[in-house]
Structures are given as structure tokens and as C-alpha cells.
């Protein structure tokens, strides 16, 4: 995810936007504030209001995807950590 400065200031939890660990926590915090994990589609739509984008991310992170670490699983884990860091 990419952040504009004001969005990072509100969701970055004081981290450094160019640090992968901090960026994952900031992304998870943003998605959680936007409706995840209850509604990933809504949270993704808040990030990028293009239905095709939301569909593509959801397909990429589908539970039946054979990759061992899909996108939503990483964000779920990061989301728990971001929630605890608040």
C-alpha cells in the first residue's frame, strides 16, 4: 500500500513509512479503521474505490490460493498487532 502523508500520520502508529514492518502495521491499522476484518471488501474499497481493484485483491488473497502466506492472512496478523499497538 502507498500512503499520502496525512493518511500515514493518521494510521502509521508513529512508525517509519519506508520500514516494511511499520508499513504493514500502518496498512493493517488503516484497513481495520476502514472496516476489516468484518468487511475486507469495504476496507479495501475505502483504500481504492475501484470495484475491479477490490475484486483483484480478494482473488489474489483467496483462501483456496496455494501460496502459504496470502495477503489477507498477513494483514490479519498485522491487524492484530496494529490493534494491540494502539
Give a short summary of the structure:
The chain has 86 residues and is mainly alpha-helical.
Write up what this structure looks like.
There is one protein chain. The two termini are 20 Å apart. The protein has one domain (5-85). With 86 residues, the protein is mostly helical. It is globular, with a radius of gyration of 12 Å. It is 63% helix and 0% strand. Helix 2 packs across helix 3 (40-47) and helix 2 (20-33) packs across helix 5 (71-85). The chain has five helices and no strands.
List the helices and strands and how they pair.
Blueprint: H1 5-11, H2 20-33, H3 40-47, H4 51-60, H5 71-85
Overall pLDDT metric: 80
Provide a count of the helices: 5
Cα-atom radius of gyration: 12 Å
Q: How many domains would you count in the coordinates?
A: 1
How many β-strands, per DSSP? 0
**Largest sheet properties:** none
Amount of helix:
55-70%
Q: How would the global form be characterised?
A: globular
User: What fraction strand?
Assistant: under 5%
Q: What are the secondary-structure elements, in order, as H or E?
A: HHHHH
| Computed structural class | mainly alpha
**Gap from first CA to last CA:** 20 Å
Unreliable runs, pLDDT <50, ≥5 residues?
A: 80-86
Amino acid at each position: 500500500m502507498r500512503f499520502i502523508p496525512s493518511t500515514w500520520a493518521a494510521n502509521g502508529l508513529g512508525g517509519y513509512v519506508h520500514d516494511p514492518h511499520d508499513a504493514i502495521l500502518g496498512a493493517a491499522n488503516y484497513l481495520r479503521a476502514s472496516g476489516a476484518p468484518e468487511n475486507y471488501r469495504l476496507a479495501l474499497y475505502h483504500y481504492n474505490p475501484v470495484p475491479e481493484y477490490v475484486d483483484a485483491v480478494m482473488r489474489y488473497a483467496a483462501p483456496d490460493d496455494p501460496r502459504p502466506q496470502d495477503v489477507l492472512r498477513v494483514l490479519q496478523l498485522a491487524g492484530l498487532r496494529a490493534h494491540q499497538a494502539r
